[in-house]
Amino acid sequence: MQPEQPERGKETGWSSSQSPLRRALSATLVYLVAGIIWITFSDRMVEIWFADPRSLSAMQTWKGFLFVVVTALVLFTVMLRLLSKDRLLLSLQLDQRRALRQREQQLRVLMDNLPGMAYRCRNDDSWTMLFVSGGCEPLTGYLPDDLINNKLVSYASLMDPDAIEQVSEEVAIAVRKGRSFSLEYAITRKDGRKVWVWERGCGVEHDDGSVFLEGIVLDISDRKQLETELEEMATRDPLTGLLNRREFSRVLEEELERARRYERPMALLWIDFDHFKDINDSWGHAAGDTVLCAVSEILTDRVRSVDSVGRFGGEEFVIVLPEMDVEGARDTAERLRQRVGNVPIPLESGHSVPLTISVGVAVYPVHGNTVDTLCSAADKAMYQAKMQGRNCVAMAQPIEPVHNET
Question: Once rounded to an integer, what is the mean pLDDT over residues 237-259?
């Protein structure tokens, strides 16, 4: 921000009409009038008082010396007054310049030590920078001069293309309403790395009606990463990284609603490890965790990208298969059972342990119309597979149609 300039009349102590030319003409006019009056009246007075020619001549000489002395004193007084005022004016201007330089230095130090990038730019599509603080390079990888007047790159080109329209719209609304704006969006640094930033700014209107934007941009990548990690902790199983029970239930509700709306099938696989307790008892819980993680990877790698795998707790895993009918669900469950059973799970100790799974299968709308009925049907089918000797796939029982009594 530039300091306010004092009004011209207040700064010099003279009105705008008293320019140097008028002041010089005024002083000259006063001098001419005084000289004419002195010469006219002093000559007459001397002629009246001194009739003798020699005395008159001598008095004229002394009168001339007196005139020179008087005018010299007047000139000295006027020049002293003018020079004193000029010196005072110069001193005030020098103090103002020193104060301005000090304020500019303080502002520069403040800007360069901000934890982000301070800026001033035009309110155009390119966000043409007019001023950028030293924090520009740590934030964007570019020097401040690279962004000023779009010398090397425009700031708008650094923004995530998907965010430019929304950012521009929010800034326009804030400027129109005369309030500040606060935004979060991603930018791409010079080295190609994407970082998240938080921007706080406002519109500043000039006397000519043009509007500029001023504000600060901070790097919030660490905060965004923490938010992502916290979000994953709230939706993911901490051991396997699969969807936890709460998040999987939400996904299952959405998939069932979609299947119901488009009248499409949807399958649910309920998986439980066979004799998993023996692994924990024989090899320890660390080995059990290794087995859980290994099977989680197998299940995730062997299903489609549209399928969702979740851990309901312990050694129970659940898979939702959108657009999957009874035959497809049975084939998928059998393929997963064979893949887990055919490859022993390696442990950190160097040993390998065999593992088999029992799978229960339920399909909408054949085996249930709601989340609860489907889960119950798949769970019962899984226990049926356990009763059949484990390491097998069991299908849920179809729901019985409701007959109206006549």
Answer: 94
